[in-house]
Amino acid sequence: MTVAMVSHGAPGDTFWDLVRKGAEDAARKDNVELRYSSDPQAPNQANLVQNAVDSRVDGIAVTMPTPDAIGPAVQRAVDAGVTVVGLNAGMDQYRRYGMSGFFGQEEGVAGEQAGRRLAADGATKALCVIQEQGNSSQEARCAGLRTGLAAGAGERATGGNGGGGGASGGTRAGGTVETLYVNGQDLTAVQSTVQAKLAQDRGIDWVVGLVAPVALTAVSAARDAGSSAKIATFDTNAELVAAIRKGDVQWAVDQQPYLQGYLAVDALWLARRNGSTVGGGRPVYTGPSFVDADTVDTIADAAKEGLR
């Protein structure tokens, strides 16, 4: 059996190394030939999906950060009789294009939980750093962060009553999120942009990255700006885990990328082997969970081995 995995991962992004590692381990177990390719540009990623169809693969696992651009190529694959599953990005659209399953986290929910975590940590103004402008998953994270922080701050201001009044109370209490766009493929530029923003706005008390490399870069940016802002992030890698242990990063929202890659390939193998479906057509959640100083030791070894 031959499976193509097509992601929007950028070169050098260690998050996608974890996804690929999970896919490779599942392929090895299942005796599957895995063909991995990626491109952060949506038209190019769509072309990679079409290339996989033209090469007559048996299954495709694909991310859809921009469904309108990539979805039609996915639909053509399904129409050609190829079983397709989604992972990581595109949870709200995968059924529209005929995918049989999805493995990942609901980004808006993950963002809201992170926002509530910020509120519990006393944040008043957070900077949400988007490194891929136009990526719907990243926009959803920041939107959820904004909702969660405002609601959580409102509940704190009203003594934990919650409800609709709590959300408006959060706004009055100063629970706000500002979005900053950067080019995630140029970490030097990311550092200078974040540093300039922190130097200009001393009211920012938290910086939230959406990937580990950006969060790690934000650590240096805050230091060089003379800012006391704390750093949190979505997604992890081995270096990020070490930064949490050290205290440079406070916590991370983990969506378990290794598991996403593993489950996507394994689901395609099961579908071919005996017609099994994983999740019954509904998404299988791999996150979110929090990694912080209290929990980091439980995943540290796995992170070093590229398994988390």
How would you characterize the overall build of this protein?
By secondary structure, this protein is α/β, with parallel strands linked by helices. The protein folds into two domains: 2-105 and 256-287, Response regulator (Rossmann fold, 3-Layer(aba) Sandwich); 107-158 and 171-254, Response regulator (Rossmann fold, 3-Layer(aba) Sandwich), CATH 3.40.50.2300. The chain is 48% helix and 18% strand. The chain contains eleven helices and twelve strands. The chain has helices spanning 14-30, 42-54, 67-79, 107-120, 136-157, 163-172, 187-200, 212-225, 238-246, 257-274, 300-304, and strands at 2-7, 33-38, 59-62, 83-87, 102-104, 125-130, 176-181, 206-209, 230-234, 251-254, 284-285, 289-292. Strands 2-1-3-4-5-11 form a six-stranded parallel beta sheet, sandwiched between helices. It has a six-stranded mixed beta sheet with strand order 7-6-8-9-10-12, with helices on both faces. The radius of gyration is 20 Å and the shape is elongated. The two termini are 26 Å apart. The relative contact order is 0.15.
